[in-house]
Design brief:
Layout lengths: L20 H12 L3 E2 H4 L5 H6 L4 E4 L3 E2 L9 E2 L9 H12 L3 E6 L10 H14 L4 E5 L7 H8 L5 E3 L9 H4 L5 H14 L4 E8 L5 H13 L4 E6 L16 H14 L3 E4 L19
Parallel strand pairs: 2-5, 3-4, 5-6, 6-7, 7-8, 8-9, 9-10
Antiparallel strand pairs: 1-2
Helix pairs in contact: 4-5, 5-6, 6-8, 9-10
């Protein structure tokens, strides 16, 4: 792997500027209800497409994270106070946008005794109360390995429990200094054991210097803990202050990795340069599988 920093985006990573009626409606809804989305805070390249289809990934517990991962654009610092009315406002936004599948995530809140687990559960309950037929997917932090927090979320009225590993074990110290690989695997494993049959999901970013052999090893680890759905996407550097891109993975290589992951036994694999954990999330698990 070359040590040179890759700066120019290849053509398959070019996206159209956001706009249109659906985008404007989503932005207005988020702003009016005082909500945060990972689409904005993480500078997601798919915001134009997703918001154009009136879908968004809502980010709970404010816009300030207690960790400072070297790949992430979300603001780091002193977090906001927990807003107990936020779950109801998230449910209202989903109702206004007419969503049938919603992804709810959060910043890391290591300052809270349960890492925000109860807030996730309250949000899932508010969504289910307002919209009984809406599928609820949660993308949770590692709760610092607190298994009671994992149980709190798993017991909530959710359909999919998602926790991202982000990268291969060798790169954790550089990419996720506040996290541990085995701990993240344990979060997924415990969610499954706490609620048998609950669908679990994980995601990885590519282009940080990992090898294909390391990726396949992670695929196998995820399957050993019963993970059902996998997402693979290209890491994009949010700013010069963040980790550089070591290499861009070509679309055809994503296709190869997808087939390798499916052979390991995943129920669904979403793989491509612009894939993120919530990208096309409604299609990752068809309704008949829930």
């Amino acid at each position: 792997m070359s040590a040179a920093v890759v700066r120019r985006l290849p053509p398959w990573l070019k996206v159209r500027a956001p706009g249109g009626a659906g985008f404007a409606e989503t932005m207005a809804t988020v702003k009016e209800l005082g909500l945060h989305t990972v689409c904005q805070e993480a500078r997601c390249p798919n915001i134009g497409e997703c918001w154009g289809h009136k879908t968004a990934t809502f980010m709970l517990l404010g816009d300030t994270c207690t960790r400072n991962c070297s790949f992430c654009a979300v603001t780091h610092g002193r977090p906001l106070a927990v807003d107990p009315a936020e779950p109801v406002r998230v449910a209202e936004a989903i109702a206004r946008l007419g969503l049938r599948h919603v992804v709810v995530t959060s910043v890391n809140r290591d300052d809270l005794s349960d890492g925000g687990a109860a807030h996730f559960a309250a949000t899932a309950s508010a969504i289910r109360h307002r919209l009984p037929d809406c599928r609820v997917e949660v993308l949770v932090p590692d709760f610092q390995g607190d298994l009671r927090a994992v149980e709190t979320v798993a017991a909530a009225p959710i359909d999919i429990f998602n926790h991202n590993l982000e990268t291969v074990p060798r790169l954790y110290k550089r990419v996720r200094p506040g996290a541990r690989y085995e701990r993240s695997l344990g979060v997924l494993a415990h969610a499954r054991s706490a609620r048998p049959g609950l669908l679990t999901k994980a995601g990885l970013m590519l282009g940080l210097g990992e090898s294909d052999d390391e990726l396949i090893s992670v695929f196998e680890d995820l399957r050993r803990v019963g993970c059902d759905v996998l997402t693979l996407g290209q890491y994009l550097r949010p700013s010069p202050a963040h980790l550089p891109v070591e290499h861009y993975v070509r679309p055809e290589q994503f296709a190869v990795l997808r087939e390798q992951a499916l052979r390991v036994g995943f129920r669904h694999v979403e793989a491509g340069p612009l894939v993120r954990s919530s990208y096309h999330a409604w299609s990752h698990v068809p309704a008949k599988n829930l």
